[in-house]
# Entry
Amino acid sequence: MITILSDHTRQEVGERLDAKLRERKIDTDLISLADLNVDPCYSCGGCTDKTYGQCIHRDDADIILPKLMRTDVLVMVTPVKWGSYSFKTKRVFDKCAIIGDRHYYCKKGELVKGKIGRVHTFVAIGVKDQWKNDEKDAFKNLVAENIKIMNIKGSVHLVDDSNISACLESVTEDLSQ
Amino acid sequence: MKKAVILNLSPRKTGTSMMLANRCREFLSTRDYLVEILHLYPNLKDLSPLLTAINEAESIIMVGPSYIDTYPADTFYLLEELEKNRDILHGQDLYGIIQGGMPYVHTHESGLKMLELFAGENELSYKGGFVIGMGAMLNGQPLDKLLNGKKAASGFEQFLKNVAKQESSPPSLYYQAQLKIPGLAYWFMATLMNRKIDKDRREKGIGDQAKSPYDNLEIN
# Structure
């Protein structure tokens, strides 16, 4: 199962990727963040002290997190600003720590954490009208750190109007394998 | 007297971010600064107290935790709101402090980069920041309790001196201060922390093979 967590982009990147994967008969689940509201992680410790592994606040993370628990590949489609995920995407990502493996591992001489649910591959697609080089580097570094800390496989793709078709084709090809 | 505002970007008011914010306030108060600490989370519905303080300050210091390798989502919301109220941004100095659980500064440094890029587009003068690893383990205790406490405290002190002088603070300060131990020691640390995690789970009556509660929720 491939889950696409997609914040709104003018180019409808999430929707187009979903359609392309479905054309190839790949099992996908597109979660559009447009109509969902995830509250902040208040770092209250409730997911450790009260309801272990579950947020004590009720919001639309209750719709998203069960789906992420059951997926093998997580694709995040996000507008990028200041080299970072969008606000709505990051709200979800912040809460993903709840379903992450809490254990520590060592990889290449450094501590890392474990997977989110059973996700083994993380693909981040950053979307922007016009990329500056330092912002490209910042987003690539952020995603590289995310992949490293989750101790899984992954890739990052930078999309704008000039390369959208080629990028979607390339991601679809990679995910098909 | 110069004015500085310290913004606590953590949802907590008693953790490591606040310890660092308090240390920053103490230091700047002795250097002829009028310093105010404001919390982001209680003001999420109405940011006007933060906007007013930012407008009046010469220096802005943003202090927060690292959630999955950068500041929490709501920091991004704050920055977006600042951009919408761009008239209050008029060349103030911006410094960042980010602290996270992993001991490596590279894990958390993206947060500072975000502030730098934001400042570049919004009439602020980004002057650098400080990254502290193992902040979660510290849980609000002073920096000297860290394994690299002496180096971390001394590096942070130097950073604060730069803030007070409104000078740029280089990344080398926090790179020099980070914990440096062999890979085998990290393996040992992982083993100890995992034992504690498993012990806590057993004490809560949760077996090692227990499924996440989200695994049992219906999918809509």
The radius of gyration of chain A is 16 Å.
